[in-house]
Design a protein that fits this description.
Layout (H helix, E strand, L loop, with lengths): L5 H4 L3 H9 L5 H5 L5 E4 L3 E2 L11 E14 L5 E8 L5 E7 L2 H4 L7 E6 L2 E3 L2 E5 L2 E4 L7 E4 L8 H11 L12 H7 L4 H9 L4 H34 L10 H9 L7 H13 L7 E6 L5 H17 L8 E5 L3 H17 L4 E4 L5 H13 L4 E4 L13 E7 L6 H8 L11 E6 L5 H7 L4 E5 L10 E5 L4 H13 L3 E5 L14 H11 L5 E4 L5 H12 L5 E4 L12 E6 L7 H8 L10 E5 L10 H5 L3 H12 L1 H10 L15 H14 L1
Parallel strand pairs: 2-3, 5-8, 11-16, 11-17, 12-14, 12-15, 13-14, 15-16, 18-23, 19-21, 19-22, 20-21, 22-23
Antiparallel strand pairs: 1-10, 3-4, 3-6, 4-5, 6-9, 7-8
GO molecular function: ATP binding; DNA binding; DNA helicase activity; hydrolase activity
InterPro entries: DEAD/DEAH_box_helicase_dom, Helicase_ATP-bd, Helicase_C-like, NA-bd_OB-fold, P-loop_NTPase, RecG/Mfd, RecG_dom3_C, RecG_wedge
Protein name: Probable DNA 3'-5' helicase RecG
Length: 664
């Protein structure tokens, strides 16, 4: 690898440091800094009167004067007075671009490219690109992502320095697949992306490089999955599916399973028959009944393992992101587990040292079959006799190392590895799921239980607030409860938005006869649990909260959720909030209050549909995966060249890889 230096690039130490900060340290890194799109500068105008102020234009003009001065806040402001062919004048301005303009002087004929601004009867060009008119390069110019304030035009100029290195870049795609797809070599595509000769040339290079990037991600995921299967072969407990046992468990439920739940349960149980550890993600919209599916799978695993001669019965660990969710899972499952003679308990930070010691001892000697807990389960002092199944709820809430601790847990007595079932209530489109979770099989639960009512949702302007207040009062008077969500607002912000603390005071004045509670992220975990328990026990009528109301928190008596400044949240997050209500027999409602400045239509999608997967598709299109799901948190990759539309290729790419691997 060739390191980038200021001598090599003919630049300054400052630029080298900025490049390094952006992860561009070598020639290969610079070549891999792909342009996102291109500009077509084919049509060159010579008269200001012909410009289109709605889009960028290319003009041939003469510089009448060029000056640089310091502004009051110490920025360098460069101004050029420009003259068109008819003698009419306009002005171009740049901030902190003196170095770029040093080669230009009054009297030079130049080409500028930029979007004009027309204000107060005057035409101007803010920060246009500029070059000598005699430089007739390609009319198709690549546009690079900015890197630590290094603009696209800088990258455009420096790519010529590394052009000769492009031919040394190795192929990524197997030759067989490249030829089968009719793709050009990587060197040809990289040359075309940085030095395009036409729109078609650029687009073909971008498409083929996007395929290659997604191919690499998918191949890595598939290899990880196969390596995991190989490593765990013979170490995971193979548990044959017994239809009679499954029927017996389901017969004890007070409700029928949906077809979707039956399909997903079948997929899980078939996975656990195999001689290697299951790696499956159960992705289900809020309210689709994921928890009961995994509890049935857990009961089946324990009962069937007890029938295996000479084998130690398996244990099941359920890892939840918060104490309140762990307690909730325990409370909702303990009776069903007990009906089948299965012992269970929970392990959370709030237990006394004596209670923790007792639970750990029972786990180690096999007296406990099911343990439900939080991060406390990940401590070095926790030992299982024979952990056979690990269920991780809201798995993206745990760090990679934390998840690996339970996924690769080797039971002290058997040395076995557990089957792993991850759960998430965040609806993610299948194409993105395959990209993020390429090393797992994916089950999707989207069908709602029969009789579950859809939540009525309305987007309300400030003028409609009193109408909502009246309706909420009737709901509370009827004995039902309300969540009231406010966005996190920093003190430095001047937006006209109420915080959860302020909202509690406002609500107390609006509803003086109701009991108003408060919960926010700065409270200690125990304090939050106490508040949520009081809300669950109906000691609080309206709960004012920041976005800490957890996914999965179950209060069937809550029928209304109000969300302040709803436009500040993504659709996927709003849908998660909405899922806190609609869990009982009564009709539920969601009110999305907007600030006075909001005039958009995005939130109307919440009124049209209760389908989390449909909303996630819209959100993904509007905001991109990093912003919707959080790049670092969820593992969403930051693509160099692929974008959302390219994710449609993922299924095709996986099929190409599987077919190629079978021929190897």
């Amino acid at each position: 690898m060739t390191l980038l230096t200021k001598a090599f690039l003919h630049t300054t130490d400052s630029y080298i440091k900025r490049l390094q900060k952006g992860g561009i340290e070598t020639v290969e890194d610079l070549i891999g800094h792909y342009p996102r799109t291109y500009k077509d500068k084919l049509e060159v105008l010579e008269y200001f009167s012909f410009v289109n102020i709605q889009e960028p234009n290319t003009l041939r003009v003469k510089i009448e004067s060029l000056t640089t001065e310091r502004t009051r806040n110490n920025k360098e402001l460069s101004k050029a007075v420009l003259c068109d062919k008819g003698g009419f004048l306009s002005e171009a301005v740049w901030f902190n671009r003196k170095y770029m303009l040093q080669k230009f002087h009054a009297g030079d004929t130049v080409k500028i490219y930029g979007k004009p601004k027309y204000e107060y009867g005057k035409l101007s060009f803010p920060s246009p690109e500029i070059e000598f008119a005699k430089d007739e390069g390609s009319s198709i110019v690549p546009v690079y992502p900015e890197c630590n304030y290094i603009p696209s035009v800088w990258f455009e100029g420096k790519m010529a320095s590394v052009r000769e290195y492009i031919r040394t870049i190795p192929e990524v795609l197997p030759e067989e697949i490249r030829k089968q797809k009719g793709f050009r070599t990587k060197a040809v595509n990289i040359t075309a992306i940085h030095f395009p000769t036409s729109k078609a040339d650029f687009e073909r290079a971008r498409t083929e490089l996007a395929y290659e990037e997604l191919f690499s991600l998918q191949y890595e995921g598939i290899i990880r999955k196969k390596d995991g299967e190989k490593m765990s072969e013979g170490r995971a407990v193979s548990i044959p599916m017994n239809p009679e046992t499954v029927k017996g468990i389901i017969s004890k439920l007070p409700f029928p399973l949906t077809n979707g739940q039956k399909v997903v349960l079948f997929q899980i149980l078939k996975d656990m028959e195999r001689p290697f550890a299951m790696q499956r993600l159960l992705q289900g919209d809020v309210g689709t009944g994921k928890t009961i599916v995994v509890i049935i799978a857990a009961i089946h695993a324990i009962l069937e393992s007890r029938k295996m001669p000479g084998k130690t019965p398996v244990q099941v660990a359920i890892l939840a992101p918060t104490e309140i969710l762990a307690r909730q899972h325990f409370a909702s499952s303990m009776n069903l587990l007990a009906e089948f003679g299965i012992t269970s308990d929970f392990l959370v930070g709030g237990l006394t040292p004596k209670q923790k010691t007792d639970v750990k001892a029972r786990l180690k000697n096999g007296d406990l079959s099911v343990i439900i807990g939080t991060h406390a389960l990940l401590e070095d002092t926790v030992h299982f006799e024979n952990l056979g199944l690990t269920i991780i709820d809201e798995q993206h809430r745990f760090g990679v190392e934390q998840r690996r601790a339970l996924e690769q847990y080797s039971s002290h007595k058997t040395g076995g590895l557990p089957h792993v079932l991850n759960m998430t209530a965040t609806p993610i489109p299948r194409t993105l799921s395959l990209t993020i979770y390429g090393d797992q099989d994916i089950s999707v639960l989207s069908e709602y239980p029969v009789g579950r009512k859809s939540i009525h949702t309305r987007v309300l302007a400030e003028t409609e607030r009193n109408e909502a207040y009246k309706f909420i009062a009737t709901e509370v008077q009827a004995g039902r409860q309300v969540y009231w969500i406010s966005p996190l607002v920093e003190e430095s912000e001047t937006l006209d938005i109420a915080s959860a603390v302020n909202m509690q005071e406002i609500l107390q004045s609006v509803f003086p006869d109701f009991r108003i509670g408060l919960i926010h992220g700065k409270m200690k975990a125990k304090e939050k649990d106490t508040i949520m328990q009081a809300f669950y026990e109906r000691k609080i009528d309206i709960l004012s909260s920041t976005s800490v109301v957890e996914v999965g928190v179950d209060n069937p008596n809550a029928t209304v959720i109000c969300i302040e400044a709803a436009e500040r949240f993504g659709l996927s997050q709003l849908h998660q909030f909405r899922g806190r209500v609609g869990r009982g027999k009564d009709q539920s409602y969601c009110y999305l209050f907007t600030t006075k400045n909001y005039t958009g239509e995005r939130l109307r999608a919440m009124e049209r549909t209760n389908d989390g997967f449909e909303l996630s598709e819209i959100d993904l299109e509007l905001r991109g995966p990093g912003e919707v799901y959080g790049v670092r948190q969820s593992g969403v990759p930051e693509f160099k060249i692929a974008d959302i539309k390219d994710l449609e290729l993922v299924s095709e790419i996986r099929a190409d890889i599987e077919e190629w691997m079978t021929r190897k």
